[in-house]
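In the design runs reported in the main text, the only information available to the sequence generator was the tokenized backbone. The following block is the verbatim input for one such run; it is reproduced so that readers can re-run the procedure and compare outputs position by position.
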């Protein structure tokens, strides 16, 4: 039995092209839908940080701006959007640094 194709599923070729163009690519899957995301750029992160008082707007903005393909249900339906919200922690990573007094 062949694996079921997801709504919005990209080909391996398309994923390879996205990786070449954007670097790391992430996907999220829910109820037969899949969407693909890239890491936001500095301008997008800056704008999103200004939306911290409205977490829903911040989530919606980042998911819309960073979706590069797949099903658009993750930006159109609130339940899918909230389900994909943990993905933002992967999209915006903070590097651990060491601070030393000299």
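Verbatim output:
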């Amino acid at each position: 039995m062949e694996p079921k194709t997801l709504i919005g599923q990209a080909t391996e070729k398309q994923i390879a092209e996205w990786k070449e163009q954007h670097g790391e690519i992430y996907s999220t899957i829910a109820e037969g839908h899949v969407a693909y995301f890239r890491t936001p750029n500095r301008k997008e992160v800056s704008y999103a940080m200004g939306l911290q008082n409205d977490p829903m707007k911040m989530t919606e903005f980042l998911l819309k701006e960073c979706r590069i393909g797949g099903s658009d249900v993750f930006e159109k339906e609130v339940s899918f959007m909230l389900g994909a919200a943990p993905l933002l922690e992967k999209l915006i990573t903070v590097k651990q640094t060491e601070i030393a007094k000299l």
